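USER: Note each token:
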Amino acid sequence: MLTNFDRVLLVLDDLDRQAVEVEGKSVDASVKSRLNSLSSAYSMLMNVDRSPIDYSSADTQIAYSFRCLASHGDLLYRTLSSAKSAVLKAVGGGSIKIACIGGGPGSDALGFIKFAERNGLEKRKIKFVFLDYEAAWKTVRDALFATFGETSYTRKSVKTDLALGAPWADSWSFNDADIFTFSFALSEVWAFDAAGGSVSKFIDRLISGARAGALFVYVDNGGDAFLPLAEKAIAERSDIVEVFSEDDTWMLIGGDEEKSTLNKYSARYDQSPKITGNVNRRIWKKI
């Protein structure tokens, strides 16, 4: 059974084969630059005057996948495992549908599939719907899903802009999902909620249209900058109950994961993949 880092290595190898020089820079130099610019951007997430982070370029996608894909997948897996019985009940006995809000390179799917493989769900039909503004993430997700081989996992992308206002998404066919994931997604968009409440209104419509018993899985940056906004939009509703919570936890990736798997890329980029983080975690259920 491959680990998250095993899969990310295969993804990076695939992306590296396709990569080309950007603005005259070597691929490695460009990825290094993007790693630094992402760090700077993440330090200003609540700046209402900032522009959305641009993930459209291949070097940015490589940088993000190298740094975060494995660890964010593992954090989601461990969050699901913390409420294992509730998750198994939510997915029932038939096909499973997961809506990944801000799905990016597929870390939500990576985390859920790890949970599925360890809980006897891997042979079930599992459909992932990725709601993300950046269509170019499809290249990374294609490389990621190739690591699973021939499976019954399917995927669909729905272009979604949480800051745009209604109708937000090209299609709302995802609203019947069993599980909705918010993995380091809301912290990137709360700054754009101030003008007209677009993010909050999206969440309201999402929850209002979800089926009873659906779960909302939240994993995001720790501290008190982001969680109160999520709590107000989700937890304070009368049709929502809390299943699991943990605040400001300094988490280390699981012992089954090993960052040294990416050593050749760590050497090339002169940085290390993320293996720790201060996070807030929640699982809510619609009643």
